[in-house]
Amino acid sequence: MAYTDVHRSFLQACCNHGTLSKEQAYELLIGIHARYGDSDTVPKEDEVAEVVAKINSRIYRFDQKIAYTHYDPTERDFYVFVNLMDSPINRHQNVYTAPELQYFRALLREITLTDDHQLPLIACLNLTNQSSDEGTKPLAKARAEQLLSEWEQSGYFLILENQCYFGPRTIVEFENYLNTNFADVITRCCLCNVTIFYGLRCAKCPQILHRECMKKYLRRLTNCPSCKELWTVKL
């Protein structure tokens, strides 16, 4: 497959949006193909993965990629544009002020340290008192609300029923950071060995597993892969 304007436009859109649902990515490809494609044929849904793979072969040397991930809290799939070397929200950027970045890091820390990696919205807003150093003015709660909304749109967080979760972009982009800095509380799914933040907890032991991993596992076996007791949690 040649690298064409379809690939360039799709990459630009991923950079601009940061996070796209699987459905949004397909609709985007249809629109781009209608404008830049060399035929009148409507692309099939599985062609999104082919376009992404071709783009990744070009941008990986720049420490970037478009990652595909399943997001358990909403049971949806996403494409996430990832900077593998440095997060654009963390370093080498001039979009956010120092207190705003400090607030973002406080959110990362506090959500990571909770048992289920979710934090009440009011608790998130109260973290503004950790957004400044001694002698400097903390972030206003009104600004914190704006930032949470902005970061949710970018895929960094999800606000659901007044709880704040890591969004698909944070799970992909900050996986290494969180594993390095919070190794004591970060776990891996015992079926796929990938870091797990949200999933299914066994009713008889503390083990948490990805929902999709368990769906595949239970096609063959009926017991928890950790404690070996009968699996009773609904999928």
TrEMBL record:
PANTHER family: NON-SMC ELEMENT 1-RELATED, NON-STRUCTURAL MAINTENANCE OF CHROMOSOMES ELEMENT 1 HOMOLOG. Residues 189-228 form the RING-type domain. The keyword Zinc-finger applies. It catalyses: S-ubiquitinyl-[E2 ubiquitin-conjugating enzyme]-L-cysteine + [acceptor protein]-L-lysine = [E2 ubiquitin-conjugating enzyme]-L-cysteine + N(6)-ubiquitinyl-[acceptor protein]-L-lysine. Residues 174-224 form the Phorbol-ester/DAG-type domain. It comes from the Eukaryota. Signal peptide: none annotated. It is found in: Chromosome; Nucleus. Belongs to the NSE1 family. Its main location: nucleus. Component of the Smc5-Smc6 complex. It is an enzyme of class 2 (transferase). It comes from Anopheles darlingi (Mosquito). GO terms for molecular function: ubiquitin protein ligase activity; zinc ion binding. This is Non-structural maintenance of chromosomes element 1 homolog. Its EC number is 2.3.2.27. GO terms for cellular component: nucleus; Smc5-Smc6 complex. Keywords: Chromosome, DNA damage, DNA recombination, DNA repair, Metal-binding, Nucleus, Transferase, Ubl conjugation, Ubl conjugation pathway, Zinc, Zinc-finger. InterPro entries: Nse1 (IPR011513), Nse1_RING_C4HC3-type (IPR014857), PKC_DAG/PE (IPR002219), WH-like_DNA-bd_sf (IPR036388), Znf_RING (IPR001841), Znf_RING/FYVE/PHD (IPR013083). Gene3D superfamilies: 3.90.1150.220, Winged helix-like DNA-binding domain superfamily/Winged helix DNA-binding domain (1.10.10.10), Zinc/RING finger domain, C3HC4 (zinc finger) (3.30.40.10). GO terms for biological process: double-strand break repair via homologous recombination.
